[in-house]
Design a protein that fits this description.
Number of domains: 2
CATH topology of the largest domain: Multidrug-efflux Transporter 1 Regulator Bmrr, Chain A
Helix content: 25-40%
Largest sheet: 11 strands, antiparallel
Number of helices: 9
Radius of gyration: 23 Å
Shape: elongated
CATH class of the largest domain: Alpha Beta
CATH architecture of the largest domain: Alpha-Beta Barrel
């Protein structure tokens, strides 16, 4: 089994190389040993778009060379790029570019295409993959969990496992009992201490079990990062988290990213979110958020 970085890299390469060979999700899932559903979810999580739509966009973009640089009939181009009928190609082309192939040939209109996706060195986290940041607005949400005062040397992994395996079932008003949210607040750089709340999201605070803690994450503009690792979600240990923080710090200091206008409020609050339903026995997928403030 390929490691996450190499898997996604090879997946993108196979799509480009297979454009004229009717590449599709079924072929790719068989090659890489996944179900079609899992491959769709993994691609969507990594690249924020559907794999079938991406393949179609790249196929249509590739067909432009034949359309604009040769006199090949449109019906032949449609067949060359895997469309069963000329009209299927024309309809897909118009949805993608807002103009038919024939009209594009006549008018020479400038159109926008979807370029091929790439992975970069900053996406590599060991053998795993790290994406971001995206700037997103996170609406207010409520959680119930267990309150812990922790240091940098404490294993949050153990605390999170204890909550997930033994404590969360006491919370009755969960919105999605399969989604874990770990909130970190008030990190003190001098002492290395912070507050950590492994939790699940709830509708309200009407039924808080004894010994549990309530918290509210207020509506915030946030930086969002995404992580894919070849391990179980409960095995995100101190080393993995430390690598993520290091990667975020490198990205934050770069002049070429989505954070140039923002300051991360990571010492104030941040949270990780894991949808355990996405784990298929191979890859863990995690989202990580921290509020940002706009720089003057």
């Amino acid at each position: 089994m390929l490691k996450p970085y190499n898997l996604l890299e090879n997946l993108l390469l196979d799509i480009e190389n297979g454009i004229k060979n009717n590449i599709n999700v079924s072929v790719l899932s068989k090659k890489f040993g996944f179900s079609e559903g899992h491959l769709r979810r993994l691609f969507s999580f990594a690249f924020k778009q559907a794999i079938a739509a991406y393949i179609r966009s790249r196929t249509l973009a590739a067909s432009l060379n034949d359309l604009l640089e040769t006199d090949t009939n449109i019906v032949e181009i449609a067949d060359e790029y895997g469309f069963d009928y000329e009209q299927s190609y024309i309809r897909a082309f118009k949805r993608e570019f807002g103009i038919t192939p024939g009209d594009l040939r006549k008018t020479g209109k400038i159109i926008k295409i979807k370029p091929p996706l790439h992975l970069f060195d900053e996406n590599k986290l060991g053998d795993n993959v790290f994406f971001g940041p995206d700037i997103v607005m996170v609406p207010q949400f409520h959680v119930i969990g267990k309150y812990h005062k922790v240091s940098l040397s404490d294993s949050r992994n153990v605390i999170a496992k204890q909550f997930w395996n033994n404590e969360r079932m006491h919370i009755k008003s969960t919105i999605d009992p399969q989604v874990f949210i770990g909130i970190t607040r008030n990190f003190d750089r001098k002492t290395g201490m912070s507050e950590y709340i492994p939790s699940v999201q709830v509708k309200d605070f009407k039924n808080i079990p004894q010994g549990f803690y309530k918290d509210t994450f207020e509506t915030s503009l946030c930086a969002k990062f995404r992580y894919i690792g070849q391990h179980h979600y409960s095995d995100i240990d101190r080393n993995a988290v430390g690598s993520m923080y290091s990667a975020i710090n490198v990205i934050n200091k770069s002049s070429y990213n989505n954070l140039v206008k923002y300051t991360l409020l990571i010492d104030k609050v941040c949270f990780e979110k894991i949808d355990t339903k996405l784990y298929d026995g191979t890859f863990c997928q995690m989202e990580w958020y921290t509020p940002v403030s706009e720089m003057p």
